[in-house]
Amino acid sequence: MSRHDYTPEQALRRLIEKLAGQDEQLATQVLAAVNAGRDVQEVERRGKRKSRSYRHTVPYAPEEALGIALEVLSAHFIEQPRFINSFHDNMVHAEIGARGATPTPSFVSQKPERIDAVGVDKTVEIELQTETEIIPTETALRQQRQQTVVVHRVSANEIRQEEANLERLRQLVDFTER
Questions:
Q1: What is the number of structural domains in the chain?
Q2: I want to staple 37 with a disulfide (CB 3.0 to 4.6 A). Which of 57, 73, 84, 166 is the partner?
Q3: pTM value?
Q4: 18: domain range?
């Protein structure tokens, strides 16, 4: 007997609805992961000697789909912020400037090289449209497009809060028998 008065299907639908109300793009990502299904390989027997092996995709069971949805949420709210913070930590040690980038003729007086920003937090921007992208796929019809996005650090308290939120959500969608 389940501890909940709702089914896994109802829980999944409600989760997607709530996500769509808050962040449509995240809801789309969760839905895409859930709808992707599981890749399986099957063998079809044709008589004694002939058999055919093929792969196809089968839908997740509702409990599995909830697990996949939770993995996507964990990646979005916990793993990505940790990755971003690690990236910022690494960038603190990076230099801005160039050492001997261009050869200097001997008749020009040598000035000391200037390397800035070692040990300092830097603004990190990610380019949204790569140089090789002629027409952006998802925004081909939009006129104005943001070129970069600034990636900020996420506080450890915020990450801990998201972990607690995700743990509460896991308990709400846990359909194991007890």
A1: 1
A2: 57
A3: 0.73
A4: 1-94+121-128+146-178
